[in-house]
Prior knowledge:
The chain is an alpha/beta fold. The chain has 15 helices and 13 strands. It has helices at 12-28, 44-50, 69-91, 105-114, 130-135, 163-166, 170-181, 200-207, 210-215, 247-253, 263-271, 287-297, 311-322, 325-338, 343-356, and strands at residues 3-7, 33-38, 54-57, 96-99, 119-123, 141-144, 155-156, 189-193, 219-223, 238-241, 256-259, 276-278, 301-303. Helix 1 crosses helix 15 and helix 8 packs across helix 13 (311-322). The chain is elongated and about 65 Å long.
Amino acid sequence: MTSYLLAGGGTAGHVNPLLAVADGLRARDPEADVLVLGTKEGLEARLVPERGYELLIVDKVPFPRRPNRQALAFPARFRRAIAQVRGHIRRHRIDVVVGFGGYASAPAYIAARREGVPYVVHEANAKPGLANRLGARRAAGLGVAFDGTPLSGAEVVGMPLRREIVELDRVATRAEAAEHFGLDAERPVLLVFGGSLGAQRLNEALAGSWADVIAAGWQLLHVTGERSELSDPEVPGYALRRYVDRMDLAFSLSDLIVSRAGSATVSEISALGIPAVYVPYAVGNGEQKLNAASAVSAGAAILIEDAGLTGDSIRDQVIPLLNDRERIAAMAKAAEGVGTRTGTENMIGLIDRAVAR
């Protein structure tokens, strides 16, 4: 029986692919020992136990960004985190460590190396995080979600995705989705969303242009986010929702999507073959723009800079696209060549090869 330790967390971008791989390993071999390494503070503290996996705890030790008191304390705290992971590896007789980035991964990579256990890295973003850049140097296997990710020796495996996305039949569920959102399954739908908290830039742009979308003959499914105060005009063909817990149905109904460009978002949209307009979040290291790059270069998506998204840009760039059904069909075809639904299986294959070596 193989014992796996999957390390990562902090955000959904790390936790969700980790859980997809965990589920894939357990589905293949119910006897396999699949454990998760994370912190008490991250999203994994809730999601991992809910999914039925044991969470092993490691201290959260952020890398210092500037010389201060935390920087002085970092070496001792990081050594302690490494020792914690080495203890977990020994007690549970771990055969392979798989890291997905985040605070738990950096000490996991070093602990695995010192214990003589192979480790495998998965990088979800086109611009790698610090933990995975460090871990990639001596990894037994290195998988990335996007082509062009600057990690030497990386293999493009795609993004491990949720089962409800992998198994989604958009055609078969379109009628159910239309009924769920109170829209017409026979008319095209533009889906706009910015994540669970929403995206103010997207909401403001649509507040000034939703009528143009409706006038173009399209319906609008607008997920504003739970904190949004945008009022619902309550007109036919416009479904405004604060939050959607069935994004699979939202995707089933979508003929075009306007969204941010988080790695999971881009991977799911591409895997489902849906054309998109990406508006990368401007805060951070520019990774969202890079995440969208492969879809844009393939002709599956267009990109509008965050600062340039307004009601006028929706009218100037999105509305003409809504009126060009041939272009949308070509974008959908291109999207099918960009995305993959086999990211979980591809990643597990990479893990198997590392264990075999």
